[in-house]
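Our consortium's second objective concerns turning raw sequence data into structural hypotheses that experimental partners can test. To show how far this objective has progressed, the report includes one record in full. It was chosen at random from the queue rather than selected for favorable results. The single chain below, 111 residues long, was entered without modification.
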Amino acid sequence: MKKTISWMILLLVLATEAALVLMPRGGSSPVGPRVRLALETHKDGPKAELDKAVAKAMAEDYTESSKGGLLHLTLAAAFNVAFILAFANYGRKKRPLTETTRASVSRRGRA
């Protein structure tokens, strides 16, 4: 019974995590502080300079957000591994070591 519950919890957590990852993001992302700063500092200058500054700020924001996404993905994978290892054997009863299993263990150790 404990093993069934632990597997159900494990599957529920993994399904929830997969749903959050696969859920489509709504709308566009808000304008970052770098882009706002570029807009404010270049608003009186030529349009080409403004476009170049905004493109550079957006590229920096994209680089930073992609690094954050990679970090979140790595942390989620590490959490999944730890969660599976912690709950996969929960509730399993250990069998006592008998003479036949002791003999087979000792034979494997000698080879």
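The partners drew two points from this record. The chain has a mean pLDDT of 77. Residues 2-22+30-110 form one domain. Both points have been shared with the crystallography group to help prioritize constructs.
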